[in-house]
Amino acid sequence: MQNEKVYIVNNYLLLLKIIFNYSRCFMTQALVSLGEYQDRILTVVKGKFGFKTKNEAVNFVIDSYGTNLLEPELRPEYIERLQKIRKGKYTSFSSVESLRKATS
């Protein structure tokens, strides 16, 4: 009976280790050195948005900045070009056959 309990506990601990290591495979960890000012900024972000850890504050700042960086606004020349295309004259066709007749 005692050996069975030890075996069950050992299997449980092994399962926990596997789950823990599996979940860590998908997370990147980094050691970051922050200056005093940057640390204060993270502390303010953490307090303002109610995060429990500075890790959550760092992720929030990166996500906020990343959307602006990865999805920039369109250039003014391209917007003008799109507006010209939208104002253009178009012919609508009721079917594919009518389109073929018009283009052949």
Task: Kindly provide the radius of gyration, computed on alpha-carbon positions and rounded to a whole number of angstroms.
Answer: 29 Å
Question: How many structural domains are formed by the residues?
Answer: 1
Approximate strand percentage: under 5%
The number of E-state strands comes to 0
* Strand/helix succession: HHHHH
Overall 3D geometry? Answer: elongated
State the helicity in percent bands. over 70%
Note poorly predicted spans.
none
From the structure provided, what is the oligomeric state, counting identical versus distinct chains? single chain
Count of helical segments? 5
Kindly, what is the distance between the CA atoms of the first and last residues, rounded to a whole number of angstroms?
89 Å
* Main beta-sheet annotation: none
Overall average residue pLDDT:
77
Structural class: mainly alpha
Please tell me about this protein's structure.
The protein is an all-alpha fold and 104 residues long. It has one domain. Helix content is 71%, strand content 0%. α2 (36-49) packs across α3.
